[in-house]
UniProtKB/TrEMBL annotation:
Catalyzes the removal of elemental sulfur and selenium atoms from L-cysteine, L-cystine, L-selenocysteine, and L-selenocystine to produce L-alanine. The lineage of its organism: Bacteria, Bacillati, Actinomycetota, Actinomycetes, Kineosporiales. GO terms for molecular function: cysteine desulfurase activity. It comes from Spongisporangium articulatum. PANTHER family: CYSTEINE DESULFURASE (PTHR43586), CYSTEINE DESULFURASE 1, CHLOROPLASTIC (PTHR43586:SF8). Its cofactor is pyridoxal 5'-phosphate. It comes from the Bacteria. Transmembrane segments: none annotated. Pfam families: Aminotran_5. This is Cysteine desulfurase. It catalyses: (sulfur carrier)-H + L-cysteine = (sulfur carrier)-SH + L-alanine. Keywords: Pyridoxal phosphate, Transferase. Its EC number is 2.8.1.7. The keyword Transferase applies.
Amino acid sequence: MSGFSTAEVDALQHGRLTGAEVGAIRADFPVLSRHVNGRPLVYLDSAATSQRPVQVLDAERSFAEAHYAAVHRGAHTLAGEATDAFESARERVAGFVGMPAEALVWTKNATEALNLLALSLSFPGPRQLGPGDEIVTTEQEHHANLVPWQETCARTGATLRYVPLGDDGRLDLSDLGSIVTERTKVLAFSHVSNVLATVTPVAQLVAAARAVGALTVLDACQSVPHLPVSVPELGVDAIAFSGHKMLGPTGIGALVARPELLSELPPVLTGGSMVEVVTLDGTTYREPPQRFEAGTQPVAQAVALAAAVDYLEKVGLQRVHAHELHLGRLLLDGVRSVPGVRVLGPEDAESRIGTVAFSVDGVHPHDVGQVLDDAGVAVRVGHHCAQPVHRRYGVTASTRASAYLYTTEAEVETFVDALRTVRPFFGLG
């Protein structure tokens, strides 16, 4: 590998992005050239919202400038072009997770996608839930994959059960056989915890659900942007993810499910676009996925999300994942090296993504975030819409640093150096 530095050779041998490749990627993201509080911006909040490259910004702007029109509703040229772009985006985004276009329902985010599915299971139909049925989720869930199921149980009389977390920061599956039973109709769980950063053993959970005929619903918000995801290979029935966490815009997300499952579910939002025949006495509905897409859709955002998918595919999700695993180890080692700081989640870097949540003894997370922001470092503070996780480990909130394909080793060092100043700043340690 003549011409490569030792670090680049090491990166290539491990399937990671080289420093030069990360530099080229960073050049596509205008915001990363910013300074904050007089310091170069170090953006470590991608688990909340990722930044967007010019290719995605240009795709959305180009569509708005040259092809903008209502889809599925007009015979004129612009309407045809907009419809083609919209449905092409559906095909590309669905293909990104190994599914056909008819499996993808556009939503405005993953939260709406999960609510759509939960609501449809409480409406009359072959999958309707009722008293005696059980829904199983886990103690590590984001509120988006917890609250909708709580509400579904309240509406239908079903019972909600949980897979607990162990002291090691991983799901405790030792009693899975007694939690997932013949009464279980839905097993809903996150692919990757947005706090603990652990990758869930999907195969084990899917096997337990299949043994009793339960549906499996995967919150894939923290996995689809960071590692290769194939719905058929995972064996789940449905997944949900958001565009703004994977280089796309806000206002766009997806529910991707087996077409056979979608065909069994009733619509939960009704009105224009999703209808077949409407009379004053009744209405028939279109086949999925359009059955679940009432009203004007986020067409420009869908086009932009398809461009984000193109970008990620060009870089390669395997290499993105390898890059983040490396950065995750650096983040974990760096945070653990700071006195008075406690990592939430497993202490080892295996089966994690490049995210680390932590608490600082004697300092509120908001104050931690402010000190880091003064150093130009952007992190997330709060409970990250996962209060039960924090309660399980005896804290009310945490600080979270999360890397992505544009994050560098030097930025991790800057973050760790800034973190070392937090407790001394408040006269502690």
